[in-house]
Amino acid sequence: MSPADQPGGEPALEDARDFAGVPDDTQRLWTPHRMAYIGGENKPEDPHDDEQCPFCAGPRRRDEDALIVHRGRVAYAILNLYPYNSGHLLVCPYRHVSDYTELTEEEVAEVAEITRTAMTVIRAVSGAAGFNLGMNQGEVAGAGIAAHLHQHVVPRWAGDANFLPIVGRTKALPILLADTRRLYAEAWPGGDGA
Fold first, then answer.
1. Which pTM does this prediction carry?
2. Which domains occur in the chain, in start order?
3. Fewest CB within 10 A of the end CB: N or C in the chain?
4. Is 150 a catalytic residue?
5. 158 pLDDT band (50/70/90 cuts)?
6. What is the pLDDT, as a whole number, of residue 51?
7. What Pfam families has UniProt attached to this entry (predicted)?
8. Binding residue numbers for substrate
9. Contacts by 94-100 with C-beta closer than 8 Å and gap 24+?
10. Of the listed 88, 96, 148, 150, which one is catalytic?
């Protein structure tokens, strides 16, 4: 009989490393691709250096390679490389600014217009029932890359917040990013998917 089984006995601490590989009743969904995000693989060492900024680098690449859905005059739409939900877009100004109050009137207007169009396109392509829209301003507010403002456009469907993210800390994303980018680009007004 262990001390934990004895009345008034101290519970025995077991080293979790002794149980690695031992089967239990927990089902696991492994998502090793998330380690790139957790480890900060694509995060700039100097967030204020626009040469390192992924939101500045994206527009210098081909749309397919950068996952850009639409290019406007002063802002653009790009798929989130680490989506909260399938079809998660980011709307970014080209200019490397961190705070919403730093945007010009033209940038404010185009970020708003691209956001509106993105919602229409996402509804047409994937039947989204709702959206979460927002900007995390500053690291303390949750911005992964706080130095370059970006607005999240996250499509939502009834039942999409199931047990996986809550219990399994896993997201099921049923479509590849490249396929999502192509469908959105083709559906964008005036878009051709190129």
1. 0.72
2. 41-187 (3.30.428.10)
3. N
4. yes
5. confident
6. 76
7. HIT
8. 80, 152
9. 94/56, 94/59, 96/50, 96/53, 96/55, 96/56, 96/147, 96/148, 97/148, 97/149, 98/137, 98/138, 98/146, 98/147, 98/148, 98/149, 99/137, 99/149, 100/135, 100/137, 100/149
10. 150
